[in-house]
Structure formats: structure tokens, C-alpha cells
Design a protein that fits this description.
134 residues, alpha+beta, three-stranded antiparallel sheet, two-stranded antiparallel sheet, 3 helices, flat
């Protein structure tokens, strides 16, 4: 079994406009040098930066499998073999609305969340204890 040890460094600073700049770097597989994100609050900036880091790692995981999307593996009897996939959807938008409730309703009623989401499909072992976010 291979062990990987590394560090994810997070640095958040307020700027002159009262907004926050978050810098995140990772020594684990180093997807890129540094991620810089702006947020309305410290937590918002951190969330955006960590989501970008997670997105890069999802891309690495998915591309590392190098699977042909159309290939169907079959058993010796010719039956298709059912696989298990961790399906991750990520959707963001900047919207205008009169309230937070209206912004949520506009998003849900638009029916574009799944269509416009960034979708990552990672093939997983059937007994992998992955718990989807709810």
C-alpha cells in the first residue's frame, strides 16, 4: 500500500475593499503552483479556493483512469458488467435576485443545473465506503 503525505496551505488576507483573498497551495501531487481566489468573507474565499483545488484533483482522478466512455465490458457469457461510479456534479453561477430565496428558486426553476454542471465520473470499487454529500 502506498502512503502519500503532504500539506495543503491556506492563507487568507483582507484587501483594501473589505473583501478577502485566499491563496491555497498543495504539496500533494501539486496540480498547480497556487490557487488565488477572492471572496466576500474569509470563509467564502476559502470555500472557493478549496473547490478549485478539489476540481483539479477530480480531474486528475478521472483522467488517471483513462476510460473510454463508450466501452462496455462483458462477462464470458456476453452479459454487460455493471460498474460503480462516483458521480460528482459541480455547478456555480452568479445571479441577481431580490432575496436568497428568489436566487434559489431561479436556480431550481431554470432546469440548467445538471445541463450546465461540470460532471466528473470516477469508477469505484463496489465496496468503497464513499458517502455522497447530501
Amino acid at each position: 500500500m502506498t502512503s502519500i503525505t503532504g500539506t495543503i496551505t491556506i492563507n487568507v488576507e483582507a484587501d483594501e475593499n473589505g473583501q478577502y483573498v485566499c491563496k491555497v497551495s498543495s504539496s500533494v501531487d501539486q496540480p498547480r503552483d497556487e490557487i488565488r481566489c477572492c471572496g466576500q468573507t474569509r470563509e467564502h474565499a476559502i470555500a472557493i479556493a478549496l473547490e478549485q483545488l478539489a476540481s483539479e484533483y477530480r480531474q486528475i482522478a478521472e483522467s488517471g483512469q483513462n476510460k473510454d466512455w463508450l466501452v462496455v465490458e462483458r462477462s464470458e457469457s456476453g452479459e454487460p458488467i455493471q460498474k460503480h461510479y462516483h458521480v460528482i456534479l459541480h455547478y456555480e453561477q452568479i445571479g441577481k435576485a431580490e432575496s436568497k430565496f428568489e436566487a434559489m428558486q431561479d436556480t431550481l426553476m431554470g432546469n440548467t443545473v445538471v445541463e450546465n454542471a461540470k460532471v466528473t465520473l470516477i469508477e469505484i470499487d463496489a465496496n468503497l465506503p464513499v458517502q455522497p454529500l447530501t
